[in-house]
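We modelled the chain as a single entity of 287 amino acids. Its sequence is:
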Amino acid sequence: MDALPGRDPRRAEIADLLRSRREGLSAERAGLPLRARRRTPGLRREEVAELAGISVALYTWLEQGRDVPVSHRTIDAVATALQLSAGERTNLHRLISRESADLREDLTPGLRVFVSALRGPAFVLDRGWDVVLRNTEAAAVFGGSPDLEERRNLLLEIFTEPECAALFADYERVAEGVVAMFRLDYAARIDDPRTHELVERLRATVPAFELAWQEHHVREHPEGVREIVHPAAGSLKLVPSIYAVAESPGLRILAFSSADPVTAKRIARLVEAFEAVAAASGATAYG
């Protein structure tokens, strides 16, 4: 029996994740003997159940998206059987356990001061990846108005704005990584109609997003160095990091540090030019 119709988005996510990882895991990698020729790649449901030490019926219900109670130990057993990454395991726990995440999103004075003091581009994101604050460096490098609290959605910009995509020398890798990091936040916002609508809109209209979404990769932190090809400053080498905000657990800081002195100097010149334009226009670039 296939996945049940009418599932809520949370159960659909669970079912799709489990099925994709089961179908992508070979018996050899799972340490199972080759008992017979396989007509399709991947493990059978009964093999995953055997590896996890649970009943075939329980695993089948999980993969079908049924709302069945399971313990943390069972979730860990299934994650281990399917060889999920640390991020995927965390995502599965959040989805199955329905943990009530504290999504307080207070933009406190201390948070404003901290983000302003960062010397590289920095964004404050909510769990739906709306930008609720950015510093002057972020506006100067990635574009934006002097209003540093101008609401924009980072996913929409990366996947629907050609000017934003053109900034990245390795756009495909950046896009895949963004989806993998967003997916962990999506587990906390999956019941929010606006966030769910955003995901479905991107899946329906942007093939690159849909392709990355179907991979079901989950990443807790960005990796590597990003090269920005800025039209005015040239090549900028940036190291991305993402941080939790203790006083506002619904917010995260996405920050970029200069990978070399040349990048730092070029960003400083961009900020000077940005602030000069803002001053000339009578606007105030604060942060």
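As a brief sanity check on the tokenised model: The beta strands are 122-126, 130-134, 152-153, 226-230, 234-244, 251-258. The first strand starts at residue 122 and ends at 126.
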